[in-house]
Design goal:
Distance between the termini: 45 Å
Number of strands: 3
Number of domains: 2
Structural class: mainly alpha
CATH topology of the largest domain: Citrate Synthase, domain 1
Helix content: 55-70%
């Protein structure tokens, strides 16, 4: 019997929790032990030794590159940064009228019109499109940020790294080495995370054999939600509502008493401390010494939240800090506005989406789950004139 076909006992897994739908060699999330691996490499080793560009190669190609392979890949990434003029027009027209994620989604969905091989579905072409998307996500998001600030578009600089170019296009000046390194780290930490909601929706769309642009557009749409990509912005908003560090404990007590969700804590998979949060926490503590008074205040609030929540819910209920808790203060320290946090998440996650889609297409099967119908049957139809 096919799994799930017994209607008398459908065995529903709410939110598909605990359901395996495919195999993958891309990443492993060990929620029990708090470990994350990209292609077998621990996130700690990649955060310490690698770059975002190298991690992109690792994810989409399946291995770390040789020097020659890396130089070729990096050169191709840099060459794809320019945005078609009509896409810039979309950004200009929509920004200020729509959520930044809606602007990003629309801009990405329009890219096939400017790619003559958009619908050529070979692995080679999909790899080329993946590299182009990784590159353009950064440029488009930076352009959205510029337009949000009512500033003119800054053309990409091919002499800069991916992270440095993003900050240059966003702020109109070249970042310091430290700023670029911090953003590069954040991009690495958010690049991939197994079958999360946006990756799953990417695969659902791609499994129909829709093109890569369509699949990635679905991923962007899914990432918009505050339970997924918008959580770091929500966590920062909560810190600003707390206002002063000494208000933290009372605020958390009140929120827990009202059974409100404390953003930055808990995860569907991790039942211990999120390994990415540990790395970001360490980075934030280093930044705190040279940051603005606002960032120092946000850091203290986040650390007090962390201490209190671990004592109250960590060991007893498995609700630990996740990647969103410390991300907002780090982004704030390098001058990125909260409205841009979720689009920046997409800039980070695009290599993971592409890697999963390339892998899934190797043995594609239409994703078509079942639902258990619980409504009435065989209701007698009454013509509209006789309905009360």
């Amino acid at each position: 019997m096919i799994v799930g076909m017994d209607k008398s006992d459908p065995g529903i897994a709410q939110g598909l929790q605990g359901v395996y739908f495919t195999e993958s060699k891309i990443s492993d999330v060990d929620g029990v032990n708090g470990k994350l691996y990209y292609r077998g490499y621990s996130i700690e080793s990649l955060a310490k030794n690698s770059t975002f560009e190298e991690v992109c190669y690792l994810l989409v190609e399946g291995k770390l590159p040789s020097r020659r392979e890396f130089l070729g890949f990096d050169r191709q990434l840099r060459s794809e940064r320019q945005i078609p003029k009509p896409i810039l027009g979309i950004i200009d027209e929509m920004t200020g009228r729509a959520h930044p994620m809606d602007v990003l989604r629309t801009a990405i969905s329009a890219l096939p019109a400017y790619d003559k091989d958009a619908y050529v579905e070979t692995r080679e072409e999909n790899l080329r499109k993946s590299i182009s998307l990784i590159s353009k996500f950064g440029s488009i998001t930076a352009a959205i940020g510029r337009r949000m600030s009512a500033k003119k578009y800054v053309r990409p600089d091919q002499s800069l790294s991916h992270a440095a170019n993003f900050l240059y296009m966003l702020n109109g000046k070249k970042p310091t080495e430290k700023q670029a390194k911090v953003l590069d780290l954040m991009l690495i930490l958010h690049a991939e995370h197994s079958s999360n909601a946006s990756t799953f929706s990417t695969l659902v769309t791609g499994s129909t054999l829709a093109d890569l642009y369509a699949a990635i557009t679905a991923g962007v749409a899914t990432l918009k939600g505050p339970l997924h990509g918008g959580a770091d912005e929500a966590a920062l908003k909560m810190m600003r509502e707390i206002g002063e560090p000494e208000n933290t404990e009372r605020y958390i007590e009140d929120a827990l008493g009202k059974r409100e969700k404390i953003m930055g804590f808990g995860h569907r998979v991790y039942k211990t401390y999120d390994p990415r949060a540990r790395i970001i926490r360490s980075t934030l503590e280093e930044l705190q010494k040279s940051s603005s008074p606002e960032v120092r205040k946000l850091t203290e609030i986040a650390l007090r939240e962390e201490k209190m929540m671990i004592e109250k819910l960590g060991k007893s209920r498995g609700i630990w800090p996740n990647v969103d808790l410390f991300s907002g203060p780090v982004y704030t320290s390098i001058g990125i506005a909260p409205d841009l946090f979720t689009p920046l998440f997409a800039v980070s996650r695009i290599p993971g989406w592409c890697a999963h889609m390339l892998e899934y297409w190797e043995h594609d099967r239409l994703l078509r789950p079942l639902e258990s119908y619980t409504g009435p049957l065989d209701i007698r139809y009454v013509p509209i004139g006789k309905r009360s």
